[in-house]
Specification:
heterodimer, A: Translation Initiation Factor IF3, Translation Initiation Factor IF3, 3 domains, four-stranded mixed beta sheet, 15 helices, 8 strands, B: mainly alpha, 13 helices
Amino acid sequence: MKIDENTLVGKLLDEHPELLDSFIRVSPHFRKLENKFLRRTIARRVSISDAARVGGVDPEYLITALRADIGESTEDGTERGRLESEVEWGDDFAEEFDYDESQIQETLDVRDDIAVNNDPLQKIMRTAKRIERGRILHLVNSFEPIPLYDVLGKKGFVHATESRDGVFHVLFKRTDGAAESKRDTKKLDATGKDVVGDLKVVEMDVRGLEPPEPMMRILKALKALGANEILLVHHHREPVLLYDKLHDGGFEAVSNKVGENHYKVVIRRAAGGR
Amino acid sequence: MSFDMASTAKLTPPFRLVATYFITSILFFLAGTVLTLINYSDFQGFYFQPHILAIVHTLALGWITMSISGAMYQLIPVVFRVRVYSIPLAYLQYFVLTAGSLGMIYGFYEFNISPGFVTFASIAFLGMIAFIINVLMSMAKVKEWNITAAHFLTGIVFLLVAVSIGLLLAMNLQYGFLMVNHLEILKVHAHVVLVGFVTMIIFGAVYQLVPMFSLSYNFPRGFGWAAYFLLLVGIVGYGLAITLGDNTELSDVFSLVMVAGVFAFLVQAAQIFRKRVRRKLDAGLRQTVVSFVYLGLAAFAVAASIALGPWKNTPSADIALSVGFLFFFGFIGSLILGQMLKIAPFLVWVRKYSSMVGLTDVPSLHEMVDQTLSYVQLYLWSAAVAVASGALVFSYMPLFLVGCSAMTISAIIYAYVQLKIFRS
């Protein structure tokens, strides 16, 4: 569903009830929308730009926030089938990687698993096992799956990553070894052991919060972070002050710029440390 | 782009370094307002007087440059993700600059232009060189250049020009070797410092700080760049017009170019504020808005004094003093006061409380600042500067005294609020 300033709030929430959280996150003013009666009546006639003005927020900011959230929660099988042609792989990449669309053997979209906190790692590894030499696994994720580079790298895969609209597309091409190869446990080092196991993703959004709220919430979340969990933070800037604090606490972080004023920061416990 | 965790050192400078600069700047600020009050009667007539020169340098070297130094050492890592080139050099700068400044201020005040004065001026100059080197070497590693980077780089180059001229002037006071008119070169020195260095740096910092504190995104940047180029052309043209030919009319043209640049900046600032998510402005941001109003007033006064031909018959020194006062205390003053009210608690919070998050109750930024006093200080300062500047235009000294007194009281309140933050 296309969201613009004339989209009616009630209609939008009918089709995407989960966006209620998005509204509230942009401004606590929108808690009013929790009232079903209000949603069914007045909200039906109110456009997003009107709502933004009433709520005291910039309409563009609200629309952007809603669009971002809807982009990650849309269930549309037909759209996904076209993903490969929509994503533009750079020219150097095509050369280096020797990329050819026909090489894609399987496409795996794990965003739904991440969204419901299911660890997709086993699914990814099983799928990767089936990939034959010279063929590609196309992985679609909501953040850059950096641990996978190492893990699949050890199994003979090279990778290339492209991000578009906050979605990460990673092509894993098997250049070495054969499909269904036995796992070589001798090659796994400590880092590999940390990753291969249950890995839960805890997601949070600190955009729209005034300093030091973002840092405060992230630090709180990290204190509660389990041994096998990683934290994915949506941030409006690269949190340099946070990096310094993380290092002291034994964490490491990686940021990816997704758009203007939108960074995805992935934080996990540093390898070999607590 | 990823952050290389292999390097273990932190990106941001030690809290103690930045705090040292900020606290020292507060003390010089207080000294500057007190000196102004004590010597208020000197402010009628011409500006080339020992007490006024002493006060100007107390504020410029001790207050403004120290504030900017502390702020830049913190901002450069946060905005550009590069480390400060040398922390020991930053400490050295502090001691050298403080020593040199104190010697110069004393020299000006007592009009004791002995070789000692030139020595202290040279020491201050070396302190500045340390600062310039540190900033240039830090920025050399920046990968992503933006409008703030352009402003910082240009500003620091202008600082080099300005302090070089300053040293020359100091030597000229002692040895009198300059062929051209000392006072004309002084005008260039003042303009390059205030517009080329201070204003450029402030604009660059504003483009980071205001969106950060008011949560403003997605604003256009065209006017910001226009302001940058207008200021750049204006200040270079002004400097050349005066040094190469003592050409007042041409220098007036370039003054108007700088004024245009200022107005372009104000439009950009308005655009940033309009796009903000956080609608309510706290004391710090309000004081920032006040500073922009004063900036506009000062620019308008410059334009008016140039445009009104007949006024050229009156000694332009009167206008210069009033405009200078507005610019110094109204624009630069309010801006530093306002931004420090946001930056200082933030830095202290990160240093003292961030490790306690989740373990115990930590205060919010709001709670760390004495809200009542900061608002009192804001309104008192804004009004005091208006009264004092207005009185200066008409050389009405009793009212000027009132304004200066109010400014001093406001400065004391400000110092109290800030020091309390650093002690919390």
